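[job 4417] fold queue: 2 targets
>>> target A
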Amino acid sequence: MNQDQTSVKRRNPWFWIPTLYYAQGIPYVIAMSVSVIMYKKLEISNTDIALYTSWLYLPWVIKPLWSPFVDLIGKKRNWVIFMQLLIGGGLAGVALTIPIPNFFQYSLAFLWLLAFSSATHDIAADGFYMLGLSQGEQSFFVGIRSTFYRLSMITGQGLLVILAGFLEESTGNIPLAWSITFFILAGLFIGFFIYHKFILPYPPNDFPAKKSYSDSIFENFIETFAAFFKRKNIGIILGFILLYRLAESQLVKIAAPFLLDSKEVGGLGLTTSEVGLVYGTIGILCLTLGGILGGIVISNNGLKYWLWPMILSINVPDLLYVLMAYVQSSNLWFVGSMVALEQFGYGFGFTAYMLYLIYISDGEYKTSHYAIATGFMALGMMVPGMWSGWLQELIGYKNFFIWICIATIPGFIMAKLVKIDPEFGRKTNR
């Protein structure tokens, strides 16, 4: 084991933490956001886009169910590397199927492979992070990993969409443009696979749980789930998790199609590159800034103090989409400002939501309960998103965005019902 310990010391975290978390974010944003834009440009209906891309949330919904098996089977280092190879294969599969007949079904199958591989990669990478670093290093690099995860979102939802738009205009062939874009992504992940195979450290404690313990692990697994659902006020807790983003879960599936659709059908008529700039670059930057500010203010006054300002922040800016739908201006300054404000409000308000998940996960099973809570978080995005496209095509963009504003009401009701310790979230809180 001395050789392994030497290997750990030889691997400078700066050489693998940024690339690991950059690689972690890209497939998620491809599955959740970029696929929506791609299918819209390939003339898939909003009903089908929202329904089938919402199903891609499922691996993150059920992630807590198979996370123990990542511990049981193989080393986390091997899981990370193999999942990056599978993600690359999924991206290449999408690229190959875009130009063929029935591309929608085939490309969705490869996006499913991408989504399951990505969710598994999340489990392994987060576990490996704790194994490969000392406690002091974990604290130091938590901001670094978050920064590079956000950069990956800008890359996927912004720069790659801009690239696809450029290729659409230069080739005049939309399927070819998106096929090339996904081939580039596939090559990027093959590069991640090769790089991390050689650069990731070999933590001496990175080994699978002994199979002889499998019965007790399964029993603990059941006990952990049971303990979560035995919590006091579990109904209110689940209601808050599922309904806090009820409006946003529907808006996020329709925002990009609205920006791309022609004015004749109620959209704004932006190009693919313009959507990449406005929604995927400016929007993500403002989302990040909102989240940073949210963390700062909660640390001063606590979660309970800021809960109502933050739920207002995440919901009230939805009115801006009503304004855009009625004005129908394609002026980039106007649209960029509206999207920036909405995304900033979302980032600011989302901070309270994530801290609430941490708050309810406190106790003996902290890590497992947080994983369960994030599974319900993904479920709260998946189910409402599935019907959003059908509803939009039924009532039109203007009425849909009015409905989005009405859909914020359940979140306000749950915010009134939840109980939070006034001291939780303050700097002095331990």
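>>> target B
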Amino acid sequence: MFGLGVPELLIILVIILVIFGAGKLPKIGEGLGKGISNFKKSIKEKDEIGDDASQGEKTVPSPDHKK
């Protein structure tokens, strides 16, 4: 994983603990989890919308539409 070993990950964790403190880490983790979850959900919805559009009628640009 990006060439990071256990010692490097432990150093990163200690730095994060020093910067944010132990009390805020659960809130940060929860926020990250929700953000990732919402991102995955939006990608699925976008794919479903794209699939629906490709199966439906194709729209023809109006004659006024110029590229």
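[job 4417] complete. Note on B: The radius of gyration is 22 Å.
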